[in-house]
Specification:
Elements lengths: L1 E3 L5 E4 L2 E4 L4 H11 L5 E2 H9 L7 H18 L7 E4 L2 E4 L7 H13 L5 H12 L13 H28 L3 H14 L4 H13 L3 H19 L5 H12 L9 E2 L5 E2 L15 E3 L10 H11 L11 E7 L5 H11 L8 E5 L10 H13 L8 E5 L4 H9 L5 E6 L4 H7 L2 E5 L4 H12 L1 H5 L2 H10 L4 H12 L6 H12 L4 E2 L2 E5 H10 L3 H11 L4 E2 L1 H8 L3 H13 L4 E2 L5 E2 L2 H10 L63 H11 L1
Parallel strand pairs: 10-13, 10-14, 11-12, 12-13
Antiparallel strand pairs: 1-2, 2-3, 4-6, 5-6, 7-8, 9-11, 15-16, 17-19, 18-19
Helix pairs in contact: 1-2, 1-3, 4-5, 5-6, 6-7, 6-8, 7-8, 8-9, 8-10, 9-10, 11-12, 13-14, 14-15, 16-18, 16-19, 18-20, 23-24
Length: about 650
């Protein structure tokens, strides 16, 4: 049994986790765990629970809270972390394997001891920071703990994040550092060292204009909010950028106050290829998928000593935004102790949706694995693979350990040649959606409007991407009722959900990019099939598409393999609610009637666009040249309007093809 303090207070037992409800025993447990292995005075515990104005019966009530907490431990099988009554107060015993806070501090100390090896220190810090799982103590109602303890813990994390940024810059991994630095500078706008790191990383990545713009932004913030100019380090950095100095990868020089100053050194060219192999980070507020987590954990921790050939492999497939990467990262984070060689994230696809060259990825992966201790098992997450051919060279580079491949495709060919387990993810179950809402928004807010919370989840199609976006919107709008959001979503808005400051968290962006990976005929066909309703049979789709049933079945099967449809023969094909809601908007240009995309216009090339006969259909009387048939925009936007087809409806064209075969 493990306790999680670095996030909402929760108990973890293997794949099972329980987020404790906001209550007085929860405050008591938090106060004890924050000072684990030390005596915590009864007076401090009473102030943590009731504040400065304590009831007259506080001492007796504290004893009652201890009894309730011990009953909670018994209920959940907690035996290795006893609560002891000692003179003057209480004490709880915990270690790095039972309390994440102790584990974090131990890993940070271990990282500091590796300062002679920056690669190893960076990996150790990544492992330490992976233990942080979201907002600190979100389910703990104690003014004292949030006033005195939370800032102290947050500062410990910020010191580790700052050191991580320094290591990235020292090793020349500027592109890898940018993601973390964008996030932390926005969350802590007054922390100048983070801004220094971001400006330097941007400049050394060849983005001089953005670096100067970021400097001006933080300068304006400091003047308006604090009435001060940027520190001397930031000012020297701006001057170096304006002069065009080369900022090398040397260890930054120390400065008074604990920060560091970038030092001009040997020229360092901006990397042409991004860092594709990085240490895994944890997923904040992960919820649901208990069955999948348990199955994956059992499979990835199976005895592989006598397994011949390559690594143990799992393929996670499913629709865009269904949570494949989050599940893979969450499981990998939980298995830190089982893979002493570490856990690495391997990016298989770029932000533009184009796959990285397998040889380039394999080269980076080989170098990363060579840095690991010999014979140590490593867990790899190959994220967003586009096909089996992209994965095979990477499996060949791994002689042991385990690999989790996430992909929108089923990768049946990879499983056929290399074996492994396949897990296809669908939407959340209603209980999982509810758990996510409570984990992110807080139990009090969700429990106050249970029916509206259910409606929000249903309107999002229980789709993890939509739920994540919706909960983020609600977090930034604490005065907004769930009922208001449920009514807004009911108007068909789920397909337009987006966060303006995070392009990756946008239903139109994610689904549009995914559709853009498909060949135009497949993209067009999906938009048409999605308009048929939640489910459709092959003959129904054939009528809508104007294709032979044999060709329609093949096309639908390819869409299912690509993650855009579910199930299929012998039953009907289904379209997930969120994809259907988005497709409805993608088919209808703003201010105009619905467009009707068709499969590729192959008629002009001498082949029938509706079957494989190789013959053109006989033109209808008085028919002129066929207009060019549109293709869906590769960015997921609406197809262009086109004139009505003079040859008649799709069903007539399909019959015409069959008659001429």
């Amino acid at each position: 049994m493990r306790f999680q303090l670095l996030g909402p207070l929760s108990l973890h037992d293997g794949p099972e986790s329980v987020v404790l409800q906001p209550a007085k025993p929860t405050v008591l447990l938090t106060a004890l765990l924050l000072h684990a292995n030390s005596v915590v005075s009864a007076d401090y515990l009473q102030r943590a629970i009731w504040g400065e104005e304590q009831p007259a019966t506080a001492k007796a009530a504290l004893q009652t809270c201890v009894l309730r907490l011990r009953r909670l431990f018994t209920k959940h099988g907690v035996t290795e972390t006893p609560i002891e009554a000692v003179p003057g107060g209480y004490r709880i015993t915990a270690g790095p394997h039972t309390l994440d806070l102790i584990g974090f501090r131990e890993r940070v100390r271990r990282a500091a001891a590796l300062s002679h090896d920056p690669h190893a220190e960076l990996a150790a810090l990544r492992d330490a920071l992976a233990l942080w799982q979201g907002p600190l103590l979100a389910n703990v109602r104690s003014d004292l703990l949030h006033r005195d303890e939370v800032p102290r813990l947050a500062e410990e994390r910020l010191r580790a994040v700052e050191r991580l940024g320094d290591l990235h810059l020292r090793l020349g991994r500027c592109g890898e550092a940018l993601g973390d630095l964008w996030e932390v500078t926005r969350a802590h706008p007054g922390h100048e060292r983070f801004h220094e790191q971001l400006v330097e990383a941007l400049y050394r990545s060849g983005r001089q204009a953005e670096a100067l713009a970021e400097y001006r932004r933080v300068k304006e913030y400091l003047l308006q909010e604090l009435g001060v100019d940027p520190g001397s380090a930031l000012q020297r950095l701006e001057l170096a950028i304006l002069r065009g100095d080369d900022l090398g990868a040397a260890e930054p020089a120390a400065r008074p106050g604990g920060g560091q100053v970038p030092v001009p050194a040997a020229p360092l060219a901006a990397p042409k290829t991004p860092e594709l192999v990085t240490a895994l980070t944890a997923v904040p507020d992960f919820a649901g998928r208990a069955d999948e987590v348990a199955a994956l954990t059992a499979h990835l921790t199976a005895d592989t000593a006598h397994r011949p050939g390559g690594p143990l492999t799992v393929v996670l497939s499913g629709a865009p935004g269904i949570g494949k990467s989050a599940l893979a990262r969450h499981v990998a984070t939980r298995l830190a102790d089982r893979f002493p060689g570490g856990r690495l994230l391997v990016r298989m696809t770029g932000p533009d949706g184009l796959p990285y060259d397998p040889g380039t990825v394999a080269g980076q992966l080989t170098r990363a694995l060579e840095a690991r201790p010999p014979g140590s098992g490593t867990l790899l997450v190959l994220d967003d693979a586009v096909d089996a051919d992209q994965v095979r060279p990477l499996l060949a580079a791994c002689s042991g350990g385990a690999v989790v491949v996430t992909s929108r495709r089923g990768l049946a060919g990879l499983v056929a040649t290399h074996g492994g387990r396949v897990v296809r993810l669908g939407p959340f179950r209603p209980a999982e959606s509810h758990a996510l809402l409570r984990a992110v928004l807080g139990a009090e807010r969700v429990d106050a409007e249970p029916d509206e919370a259910r409606r929000v989840a249903e309107s999002c199609g229980h789709h993890p991407l939509a739920l994540r976006i919706m909960t983020a919107r609600l977090q930034t709008r604490p005065g907004l009722r769930l009922a208001d959001s449920a009514g807004w979503l009911a108007a068909g808005q789920a397909g337009r959900l987006a966060l303006t400051d995070a392009p990756g968290l946008s239903v139109p962006e994610v689904l549009g990019e995914a559709l853009g990976r498909l060949e135009p005929p497949l993209a067009d066909a999906f938009l048409e099939v999605a308009a048929l309703g939640p489910a459709c049979a092959t003959d129904e789709a054939a009528t809508a598409l104007g294709l032979c049933e044999a060709d329609t079945e093949q096309l639908l099967d390819r869409l299912a393999d690509a993650g855009f449809l579910e199930e299929g023969p012998p039953g009907p094909y289904r379209t997930l609610p969120l994809l259907r809601a988005w497709a409805g908007g993608a088919r209808r240009p703003p201010g105009g009637p619905a467009a009707h995309p068709q499969p590729a216009d192959t008629a002009r090339a001498g082949r029938c666009p509706h079957c494989r006969t190789g013959r053109k259909p006989t033109p209808a009387p008085h028919e002129g040249p066929r207009p060019a048939l549109p293709q869906a925009h590769r960015t997921g936007g609406a197809p262009r309007e086109h004139p009505p087809d003079a040859a008649g409806p799709p069903s007539a064209r399909r019959r015409e093809c069959e008659d001429t075969a």
